[in-house]
């Protein structure tokens, strides 16, 4: 067990966030609400998070002087995505600055092959997986796994990028060449009946779980989440036990999302871990007593854990970019959404859109999941993403 202790920070202490996307924005909102100052590091001027932070350092994530500037100006540092140079993060820690979760945790999770190997070593069930170095390795693994596989880059994959489902021999070489020069792994394709996820938070006091979300994807992009997930108490208990086992193994403090597959035999398999707040946990902003974002602020500032109690059943839908709109955009239908009781609109302030880009989300609450789902779907149908100037 870790003996480290998080220093208690009181407002107006400064929280540094590496990454200026929507997760950073929602994290900054919570920090500002609680009276903290926020500095964001992101290469895009006026990033989503930078729009609400006290300051943005405009620099690349691998810019060590910029990271050191962020560290000097902050009392604690966290991050909103995994694609950060672990060695540079380790340098910051070696300089004496606090980062949560740590660079060691990020190193264990960032590389998917390393992550799966760690999970397997502690007895957590995962899809069968193999490291591949050559095309011959890929072909042999394809046959070993019954001719349906997922080829993945070990790092930098997200939202459908960095992975390809292959079920035909003739697709192998094209897929292999697409990822030429990158570290690759192959996973068994799971014929799952459900995809679910859980947000789990850990500090010195222990762990707390958020309600399990049932997730629906299209082209590997999250379309909607329904909460609570329609799973048996036995499966929920299994997910809780596995999740706690994982965060105890990581032996670190922070907010983690663990994604699961449930197969037709009702086996529970871990898909992936994210060492940060997650898209499938956005419902917690309105749906829970303390959101996943507030929870992370509490943890990095050495405060008590917040309640994860679900207020009401929820449905969360992502607002994705239109296939016919690329570049600057405007959104119509906001007035219709705001007429719907207990339906909440979040727009991320991204300057440009393209097909399937996440530009916002809608969360609806109601007395049943079905009612919340219908309400959120109605709200989403009122949204139209158009090129700016064509309203």
Describe this structure in words.
The protein is α+β, with helices and mostly antiparallel strands and 391 residues long. It folds into 3 domains: 14-99, Rossmann fold (3-Layer(aba) Sandwich), CATH 3.40.50.20; 128-188, 2-Layer Sandwich (Dna Ligase, domain 1), CATH 3.30.1490; 192-387, D-amino Acid Aminotransferase, Chain A, domain 1. 29% of the residues lie in helices and 28% in strands. The protein is built from 12 helices and 19 strands. The strands form 4 sheets. Strands 9, 10, 11, 12, 13, 14, 15, 17 and 18 form a 9-stranded antiparallel beta sheet that branches. α1 packs across α10 (292-300). The mean pLDDT is 95.
Average pLDDT: 95
CATH superfamily caption of the largest domain: ATP-grasp fold, B domain
Question: How much beta, percentage-wise?
Answer: 25-35%
Write down how many β-strands occur, each being a DSSP E stretch of 2 or more residues: 19
Most strands sheet: 9 strands, antiparallel
Query: Helix count, per DSSP?
Result: 12
Q: Evaluate the radius of gyration.
A: 21 Å
**What's the CATH class label of the largest domain?**
Alpha Beta
Taking the alpha carbons of the first and last residues, their distance comes to 57 Å
- Helix-and-strand structural type: alpha+beta
